[in-house]
Amino acid sequence: MATPELRNGPLTGIAVVDMTVAVQGPHAAAYLADMGADVVKVERPGGELNRYVRGPGFASPPDVMGTQYVAMNRGKRGIAIDAHSELGREVLGRLIATSDVFVTNYRREALERMGLSYAQLVTQNPRLVYARVSGFGPLGPDADKAMLDGAAQARGGLAAISGPADGPPMPPGAAIADHSGSMQLALGIMTALYARERTGRGQEVNTSSLGALMWIQAWEIAHSAMSDETLHREGPHNPNIRCPYGVYETSDGGAFLLAVAMSDASWDDFWVFAGRPDVVLDQRWNTGAKRIGARGSIDGVADIRQKVREAFAAKTTAEWSEFLAGQPEIISERVQDYDELLVDPQVAANGYLADIEVPKFGTARVVTNVVHLSDTPGCGVLRPPPLLGEHTADVMHELGFGRDDIDRVLAAVEGAATEIVAAVFDD
After folding, report:
1. Inter-residue contact 209 to 152 (CB < 8 Å)
2. Fold for domain 15-216+343-425?
3. Domains of the chain: which residue ranges?
4. Which of 105, 223, 356, 376 is most buried, with most CB under 10 Å away?
5. 3-state DSSP call for residue 342?
6. Strands (E) located in 255-378
7. Tell me: the pLDDT tens digits for 90-144?
8. CA gap 102, 128 in Å, rounded
């Protein structure tokens, strides 16, 4: 497969070593690639396990990359080496010595064993931005505790306020902790690169899923700390917004998120359309401030939510869509599934999705760079995720290694990959 021609971006000229797995680390490095950085993904000879992991309904052959790997690693070059071997350590050492950023989500202990701690690398490359993301932060008793996304959601408070009011805590249906951590890591990397322009020195960047989840719940956590109110699960409603705000089902199984009627006229129109003009007379909800929950009072909240619930349930999705389309002062959105999101014209207009060619699969649609810069736009998704070890020879040649060394590294890849495929797919 021919390598797509890359456009210059704001990070063109920045070299990144991406030694990460799964979601949290790789997605941060994918952002750097979107912005023009040359990101080299480093995998063990058999490849990252997520190359092979399958999810519901994805029944492609073992030699097709898994969906998580595709989503997190588009835009990168890839090498496969044994970082525990003498030659592998030499390849990594030369690569990092000539790079601007090292990104990892390996545990600190493992990095130290491989000679890849910040203290070990900064002596070789003082300008290196060393970026590490973990589950629970770099300090404290659980600094090296293993983490998956749901564990961080549980510890970080998000699961506690998600789910039905009369049911158990319920983590949201996406890897929010991992992706939040990746965003914070990318932000930290960019901050460190900017600081390096002024000081000439790199530095260590650390963040975590736990910290990132707290960042995205900053309002809710501050409210709990400053008030006597403990927030509880309220199902389709935000527990910190005491008003009609919430998700409501229609008569034919659709659903809408109703946020607020900003003007009194639009509030009146809503209830006239619903066939309940009497609700307009309720003084508890007759201003925009009251309808957005500014008072913080629970007075009348259950009653108004029930009335809104009945109103939506009395009409079809199409009827509500037509009415709300003509009400710009009512902030609301129909709840979409992923199939609908993939063809949403607003998504298309902003270029939030892109088609890439995935080897042995064909065209795949993936989320791309969602940050728009007017003068120095990113490169977009122009390079597919790398085949296992696809660019090993190129990168080693760039680093000055000869053909014999390159062949030794390449020889280890095929056999190791076969072992992993057998472990994942054989019954």
Report:
1. yes
2. Rossmann fold (3.40.50)
3. 15-216+343-425, 255-334
4. 105
5. coil
6. 255-261, 330-334, 353-358, 362-367
7. 999 999 999 999 999 999 999 999 999 999 999 999 999 999 999 999 999 999 9
8. 7
Q: Report phi then psi at 253, rounded to 5.
A: 95, 0
* Burial of residue 350 (number of CB atoms within 10 Å: 0-12, 13-18, 19+): exposed
- In the structure encoding, which two tokens stand for residue 131, read together? 């970026």
Structure tokens at 235: 């199902």
Number of residues in the chain: 427
- First-to-last C-alpha distance (Å) of the chain: 32
pLDDT of residue 379: 75
User: Do 101 and 76 form a contact (C-beta atoms < 8 A)?
Assistant: no
| Beta strand pairing call for 255-261 and 246-249 | antiparallel
Tell me, what's the pLDDT at 145? 95
Distances (CA, A) of 102 to 18, 96, 244: 6, 7, 47
pLDDT (average), residues 282-300: 94
User: Residue 11 is which amino acid?
Assistant: L
